[in-house]
Amino acid sequence: DQEKLTHVEKIKALLKEKDAVLVAHYYTDPEIQALAEETGGFVGDSLEMARFGNQHSAKTLIICGVRFMGESAKILTPEKNVLMPTLEAECSLDLGCPADKFSEFCDAHPDHTVVVYANTSAAVKARADWVVTSSIALEIVEHLDSEGKDIIWGPDRHLGAYIQKNTGAEMLLWQGECVVHDEFSAKALRDMKALYPDAAVLVHPESPASVVALADAVGSTSQLIKAAKELPNKKLIVATDKGIFFKMQQMVPDKELVEAPTAGAGATCRSCAHCPWMAMNGLKAIENALVEGGEKHEIFVDEALRVKSLIPLNRMLNFAA
Ligand code: 13P
Ligand code: SF4
């Protein structure tokens, strides 16, 4: 509508004026993803977002996603102005893993290598030996296991259990979860599969093990989009945030995408899984970030923490390169 168009035009002009670029996650609103691509910015999974921001020459990064993504960008490129549409966009994994408690957990097992998911605060990353995202976690843990390392994993217990199962590594798991993926239900998914016997099932590994067990493909958001293209099935049941449907449908215009059911929703679920914090990223909020900057939008990371957290973050980027 007219209001959205006005925001889009203003954002385009402001991006040029401020030498800024939009870096968006697949779970943000379709109009944000479209605008990021149209203006030379980027849409991707959390690893790709970190990589893009790190390599781009713009003076200002507008990170459309949640706080840990903004913090990772600032840790990697402190010379840039890193802005977010809202600083209130959190993540249940980050919130459920306070740095002091996590540090105590690590201190109790000093002989373990500490691997943390990117969905954590800078302070938790600073306590870690490695940072991983869902697209690279399996390879990194495989590598550490081959060196005989025992691992402390935090904070997502479902992703941790998935990696433990697939690598056989010795892992102590922090008990956190993503409020969106934790809601997917194996029972309801089995009912849905019975309705659509020819459909393939795509699952993000932040989902419970019982849901992952029903998957034809498991992976990060980017990996699931790739699987959607590669699988021969014409119908795909997708267990991740519904924001992914925008890009996935563009990539497989001839396929039918169905949202996987959450608990209680049954096999007729529609629009069940959407992250409340990702949903805070709107066009108006992006425009505000570009106009106002400052304390309502700018990411700051304490320099001592930044220097410490850069080490495990860079380890991941170098491993992935
Ligand atoms: P990926 O995009 O790395 O798969 O991460 C998913 C996620 O939970 C981001 O919030
Ligand atoms: Fe965190 Fe889950 Fe939201 Fe991703 S979808 S930001 S993991 S709460």
From TrEMBL:
Binding sites annotated in the UniProt record for iminosuccinate: H25, S46, Y117, A118, N119, S134, H204, P205, E206, T221
Keyword annotations from UniProtKB, A to Z: 4Fe-4S, Cytoplasm, Iron, Iron-sulfur, Metal-binding, Pyridine nucleotide biosynthesis, Transferase
Compartment list: Cytoplasm
Example of a GO MF term: 4 iron, 4 sulfur cluster binding
EC category name: transferase
Entry's cofactor comment: Binds 1 [4Fe-4S] cluster per subunit.
Protein's GO biological process: 'de novo' NAD+ biosynthetic process from L-aspartate
UniProt keyword Nucleotidyltransferase, yes or no: no
Keyword Iron-sulfur belongs to the record: yes
Annotated family: Belongs to the quinolinate synthase family. Type 1 subfamily.
Name of the protein in question: Quinolinate synthase
Species per Swiss-Prot/TrEMBL record: Photobacterium indicum
Gene that specifies this protein: nadA
